[in-house]
Amino acid sequence: MAGGRSLKSGAHGRRKEDVMIGLIADIGGTNARFALADEHGTVRHSIRLATSAFPSLAEAATEALARLDACEPIAAAVIAIAAPVVGRTARMTNGSWVVDGHALAARFGWQSWRVINDFAAIAHAVPQLAADGLLAPLDAPGDCWRDERTRLVLGPGTGLGVAMVREAGTAVLVQATEAGHVSFAPESEEEWALARDLTARYGRVSVERILSGPGLFTLYRWLGGSRANSPEAVAEAAREGAQPARRAAAWFLDILARFAGDMALAHGAWGGVLLTGGVWQGLLPLLDPARFRHLFSAKGRYRPLLARTSLARIDHPDPGLVGSARLLAELLQERG
Which residues are CB-neighbours of 229 under 8 A, at least 6 positions away? Predict the structure, then answer.
């Protein structure tokens, strides 16, 4: 059979129909998620590794394939990575890995493969997530733009990802961006003071310097916090009501709402903004939907337009794997 690994037996030795299998990966600055998926886009087995534990993607993939019990060669793969992808290569923004698709294919024997941006992978998952009821509205904006098909996927994790997706009939058109690296736009004296301090430290302040795990920690420390020693600890302290973690989290969500509104305007995403990411998930219990909507829509003459633009959260722990599995299915089906 042409294609990936063939599964010939199931539980208790029952024989299954041969199915083509490939490797998918969602590589972030903190976690590297790997899974086997089939020609139908079904994610079969997945594992999570610490990105920092491996010197390269090739080493991490070797470990993942061993743990996933991929005994036979994998002939197809889709690698989603938190980096701009130029041609078939990518250099991680918040990590040391340099990914060369051609070199990986030669090392592992992949005959069909793709390297894509991690948020592009999430954008490719949107139709399936919508069909499965995994896009949960943050609020009820009233008469939203129901016929608009351009949406934005946005979220803070180790970095800040943004991608656009448009459904045109059965086609799904995705555009990866590096919009998380646009300049931070202060809107108060306190934010201008923060921007001056960060400019002195970094030379320039992108919005990712604030809307990310490290950015949440920066806000906490700037507000005088000292007990929490990681973004996760800040989020936990905020959920417990401890100051200044709670204030840092509220400030973070305010800036995120404003940025989401800016990105909706920039990309014409009247079909909605979909929020995801590890930091977002950690702060979700603290979200005030009405305040988030107000700040998202507070764009002067464009308030009425954004007031009708839907806001939703992605209720899936690994949406990047879902999108990567969809693309892998296309590769496997092309191989036949």
Answer: none
Q: Tell me which amino acid residue 312 is.
A: A
Helices (H), 92-208: 101-108, 118-131, 189-202
- Residue that the structure tokens 């041969």 belong to: 18
Task: Give the CATH number of domain 11-117+319-335.
Answer: 3.30.420.40
pLDDT for 82-96, tens place per residue?
Answer: 999 998 889 998 999
Q: 135-314: which CATH number, 3.90.550.10, 3.40.367.20, 1.10.10.10, 3.40.50.150?
A: 3.40.367.20
The domain segmentation of the chain, as residue ranges, is: 11-117+319-335, 135-314
Phi and psi at residue 209, to the nearest 5°: -60, -20
pLDDT, tens digit, 9 for 90 and up, residues 142-201: 667 667 789 999 999 999 999 999 988 888 999 999 999 999 999 999 999 999 999 999
Cα 113 to Cα 30, 43, 62, 202, 206: the distances in Å are: 23, 17, 16, 37, 32
CB 143 within 8 A of CB 136: no
